[in-house]
Amino acid sequence: MREVLAQAAFQLFLERGFERTTVDDIVARAGVGRRSFFRYFPSKEDAVFPDHERCLAEMTEFLAAADGGDPVGAVCDAARIVLRMYAADPEFSVQRYRLTREVPGLRTYELSVVRRYEQTLAGHLRGRFGEGGDGELRAEVIAASVVAAHNNGLRLWLRSGGAGDPEAAVDHALALVRDVWGRPAVPAPAASFPVSGDGEGEVIVMVARKDAPMWRVVQQIEAAVGEN
Fold first, then answer.
1. In this predicted model, what pLDDT tens digit does every residue of 155-182 receive, in sequence order?
2. Can you give the chain as a three-state secondary structure string?
3. Which tens digits make up the pLDDT trace of 22-64?
4. pTM (2 decimals)?
């Protein structure tokens, strides 16, 4: 019944426009009563996005079962669940994308759904990085990056009318996120050693990755000097 109502609603939105379609129109097209509509959808907007609740539940379940290996990889893989939802019905996904571009209220609703995905990813990352300080900040930034990268690739596919492989653009975008955030560019702790021979004092030796930001390298050196 949920699918029947969603299909009837979307057909009417395309035929008459979103604003000119009422709930009474939808239930009449579906051949059911108003109670049936509100049993499945709180509003007309929800009928445009009938699959997101299921997708959010699947994402939550996936992240709950993720092992402790690579948290950034896990949230990138979780974002692909959303991609597969869109790719399962390209015609509907493209039509919905075009409809949301035309109706400001639907665009606002879509943004609220996107925010829920982002919060789900951030919640998983906070569990790995910590709830406060830089751990929480890192979780929020990475989650936002994953969502932005995923949506960039997805919209390229939707704007093309659903042509080609949607995974290619999304995989490319998510690979950039993993490259930036998957390996923290943090220098190894500095170590100090006594100077041999007649010299006095100590020499500080530190190993850093080539792509480590200079401020982080300097910070580590300053910390090591301060300890000595």
1. 999 999 999 899 999 999 999 999 888 7
2. CHHHHHHHHHHHHHHHCCCCCCHHHHHHHHCCCHHHHHHHCCCHHHHHCCCHHHHHHHHHHHHHHCCCCCHHHHHHHHHHHHHHHHHCCHHHHHHHHHHHHHCHHHHHHHHHHHHHHHHHHHHHHHHHHCCCHHHHHHHHHHHHHHHHHHHHHHHHHHHCCCCCCHHHHHHHHHHHHHHHHCCCCCCCCCEEEECCCCCCCEEEECCCCCCCCHHHHHHHHHHHHHHC
3. 999 999 999 998 999 999 999 898 999 988 999 999 999 999 9
4. 0.75
- Crossing angle (nearest 10°) for helices 90-102 and 2-16: 50
Token pair for residue 48? 């445009």
Read off the amino acid at residue 19. E
Dist CA 45 CA 103 (whole Å): 10
In sequence order, the 6+-apart residues with CB closer than 8 A to the CB of 183 are none
Tokens linked to 149: 């990268």
